[in-house]
Design brief:
CATH topology of the largest domain: Nucleotidyltransferase, domain 5
Number of domains: 2
Strand content: 15-25%
Structural class: alpha/beta
Helix content: 40-55%
Distance between the termini: 15 Å
CATH superfamily of the largest domain: Exopolyphosphatase. Domain 2
Shape: globular
Number of strands: 11
Largest sheet: 6 strands, mixed
Order of helices and strands: EEEHHEHHEHEEEHHEHHEHHHEH
């Protein structure tokens, strides 16, 4: 590629449709320009019968259409569209993908769990200033991924069919909930991740890895602890926390109704029901692997996909 190109990377996720616009340089690097987010909750009620609901699909298709208009206005040179667990696991995924194709003129690439983990890891690790052992935790709406390795090499990864929306729907966790429901969520998380525990624990022993938390659960938590009324990825990126602070916020939020959570600085309406569930999951994962401090990153899937695209001759 001999000139600058404006590339759009659209991720059709469980909670949101997010589109990153980035300017790709002739030297193979890119500069992120802006990010557009539309919260559509595509995965709502997916656990009930395995289908994407008509209402959720309509919301998502509308958001995709609006983002296509942005691409046209900005004169985007190329568009990459992906989706993952929310569509991968849906019985009626074909009809949804067909609707997407009619708008995008391409079918969104449905990523496997391992591909999702690989791209998120690539996006996060590429920003590290030195080579060091790291663990990545990515808690999504329908699936969660954990990966580990170094800046230049992912050693291992696994994807789990557990996320904030699936967990909230499965156990009817919405507004204020008691310690019994918290324990149910914790035990279910442990059950889903149990097979991965020995593998990661053996690798991490004696390494003191740096822990990164990505995706909506992590960035929403960062916005809350920093009281960011208007989301600013530069302010949220590299926010640090630990297990003690996380557990205090988790307890604080789960004792609130959804209406009360609306008044919490930094907590957007679309995350009022699911963030407490995500914090329980994150706390449980950290305890399982004997981890304490962590950093929240705004980099992840879209940046990793873009890097892969650039490094592989502009082919996904």
């Amino acid at each position: 590629m001999g000139k600058e190109n404006l590339i759009a990377v659209m991720d059709i996720g469980t909670n949101s449709v997010i589109m990153l616009l980035a300017r790709c340089m002739p030297n193979g690097k890119f500069v992120a320009e802006t990010e557009y987010i539309a919260t559509t909750i595509l995965g709502k009620d997916l656990s009930q019968n395995g289908d994407l609901s008509p209402e959720a699909m309509d919301r998502t298709i509308k958001a995709i259409g609006e983002m296509i208009e942005i691409c046209n206005r900005k004169k985007v040179d190329d568009l990459i569209a992906t989706t993952s667990s929310v569509v991968r696991n849906a019985n009626n995924r074909s009809s949804f993908l067909l609707e997407c194709h009619q708008l995008l003129n391409i079918y969104p690439q449905v990523l496997s769990g391992k591909e999702e983990a690989k791209f998120v890891y690539k996006g996060v690790s590429s920003e590290l200033r030195k080579d060091e052992p790291i663990i990545l935790i990515d808690i999504g709406g329908c699936s969660s991924e954990i990966a580990y390795g170094y800046r230049d090499e992912m050693i291992g990864a696994s994807s789990f069919d557990i996320g904030t929306i699936l967990l909230a729907d499965k156990f009817k966790i919405n507004g204020k909930f008691n310690s019994r429901r918290r324990t149910i969520a914790q035990n279910y998380t442990i059950q889903k991740l149990a097979g991965f525990q020995d593998e990661l624990s053996r690798w991490a022993e004696g390494k003191n890895p740096k822990v990164f938390v990505s995706s909506g659960t992590g960035t929403s938590y960062a916005a809350v602890i920093k009281k960011e009324y208007i989301y600013d990825r530069n302010q949220v990126n590299e926010t640090t926390s630990d297990l003690k602070e996380l557990n205090l916020w988790s307890k604080y939020l789960r004792k609130m109704t959804v209406e009360q959570r609306l008044k919490v600085p930094g907590l957007v309406k679309e995350r009022t029901a699911t963030l407490p569930v995500g914090l329980i999951m994150l706390s449980t994962i950290l305890k399982m692997f004997n981890l304490n401090k962590f950093s929240i990153t705004t980099n992840g899937l879209r940046e990793g996909i873009l890097l892969h695209y650039i490094n592989n001759g502009f082919k996904l």
